[in-house]
Design a protein that fits this description.
276 residues, alpha/beta, four-stranded parallel β-sheet, globular, binds D-glutamic acid
Length: 276
Amino acid sequence: MLPSSPGPIGVFDSGYGGLTILKEIRKTLPEYDYMYLGDNARAPYGTRSFDVVYEFTLEAVKSLFERGCHLVILACNTASAKALRSIQQKDLPELDADRRVLGVVIPTVEALGSITKNGNIGVLGTPGTISSGTYDIEIAKFFPQFRTVSVECPMWVPLVENREFDSPGADYFVEKYVEELFGQEPEIDTVILGCTHYPLLLEKIEKQVAGRARIITQGELVAMSLKDYLSRHPEMDQKCTRGGTCTYLTTENPAKFTELAEIFLKSPLSATHVTL
Ligand code: DGL
């Protein structure tokens, strides 16, 4: 039996990357309580199969529901791309039809209409996100006239997680993937950073893109979309507590989580270990 009293908004990621989303959500909606869960012990998800990402994400969502969340944001592109639809359609009706799980892909895609001028969109993401075709499918649904090209960037998450995002080695891989993208379509005017880790490489990506396109990061878009969602769904808004707190949960060693998490959040925090 899931707890029925109001609770924090759950924010889930495979590891640290979702902290870039959480940071923007808390800037936009500071009054709510949040519970962040990073499945660091099993990250990265980006190279895992559809079935495994779905199974792990569902376990995380159930855990956040059991800890009192009524609304969970999948602040992970790979989980949003591979697990969200199945969870929404198959699992939520059985778990609790009144709880909600939202992702990061739709808020990003929705924003394209007011950003692109020529409809040529480039997407950079993990192998899992790109091979799922989720961005191509959702962009085609919202904007059938747009053309989407994408590139898998398998080295960018490891560069960030190993604190090499500022190193000269990172320049090589930033150039490689950005040029692969523009090699497919030189007229791209909008580039989606479709992975929560990529904001940490933003300076280098901007330098490489060199004014050829506008670069979209997701934190602000997801935050604005959540704000809009809560204003349109007062029944859910009432189930989200307001105390301005944030609890951090990790499936890894909390001390290890805290160390790298501070790089993403740029402020100190303390975390608790959980098993899923
Ligand atoms: N959070 C993941 C994403 O946005 C990146 C890290 C991972 O591969 O687990 O796709």
